[in-house]
């Protein structure tokens, strides 16, 4: 009998109301504006050329990917920013360290480049930015414009085909000699010499306690005057928790709760009350790890394949008992297989076997070598990797992915619209 290492995986999805925390914006209450304007709410355009101006380049539009509203800004001649003048003013660290998080996308690089241009978005915080004057960053004094400015340099580049990215910028005070805050997304840098006559440390600690403006650089590529960026879900919030890197035993497959979470994608089949799928989408990191472990098994004890069995089960409730199996799938890796998953997995997506809101589910995965079972030490590899998921529908159009009782990310659903002439019919946006 095969020694099987089981890991139960699930995703807890809760549909929640819009964020009520201060300094959060999702544009859902903003009116659609498909004609460009120079300002909307507290968002304004700022062109920082030799004669500063506020071009008409802002729109509030529907995001074609999910039907929610986003703000967009288009470039024009000279250095162009999308500025918020007051929604995020004040002391960002009055309650301690925090993060400024948002969804960001390069909607257009402004041309027909092949391949598309790669960019690093520019995000800035300012103190005393005078939008009627050009930027002045040449000397460290109180006469610069802005008086103090810092920009966040992202580690990764993006292009117009990159999906919306959720990005969180770390905000906390520093001591003399400390580097500016950084995280996996990137790092803060001073903006020119705009330090208000202070040291870099003092200027940083000063501005995060008195932010007056935030800015997103629209001239993302520097190659033309037609780039378009999009923003959504901006929020000052506690920083996402960072789990320590898992430690793997060479006698156990390199699997953990953290490594499994990103393998499943919540896919609505229509409107918010309709069935949905939790689809397996293997990451390149997962394939690399499993291929390396399969090669290790072959080298150390002669097993030539690593097999996986996946079961989608309905359960009676949270931490509940098994009710029935919904779908079962298998695949495997072979030694020296270059990371290719054998059997071309694509699941859970059998027609008629979708998940339903209001019902609890669990995913169980069994992992085992095809032979040489002594390669596994089942007693050492039986850690609890149980995840369960559940979709609760209410009046909101937002689903929150909850893992181990903590919010993981926000998923926006498509909205429903009534079809004229029959109040009982609905159609997708």
Summarize the structure.
The chain is mostly beta strands and 429 residues long.
State the main characteristics.
disordered N terminus, 429 residues, mainly beta, 3 helices, 8-stranded antiparallel β-sheet
What does this protein structure show overall?
This protein is mainly beta. Helices cover 7% and strands 40% of the residues. Strands 5-6-9-16-11-12-15-14 form an 8-stranded antiparallel β-sheet. β27 and β28 form a beta hairpin. It is elongated. The N and C termini lie far apart (52 Å).
**Which runs of at least 5 residues are low in confidence (pLDDT < 50)?**
1-22, 415-429
Count of discrete alpha- or pi-helical segments spanning 4 or more residues: 3
* Helix coverage percent: under 10%
Largest sheet: 8 strands, antiparallel
Average residue pLDDT: 80
Radius of gyration: 25 Å
Query: Could you say which overall geometry the principal axes of the C-alpha atoms support?
Result: elongated
**Which structural class fits the helix and strand makeup?**
mainly beta
Beta-strand portion reads: 35-45%
> Span between N and C termini?
52 Å
Strand order of the largest sheet: 5-6-9-16-11-12-15-14
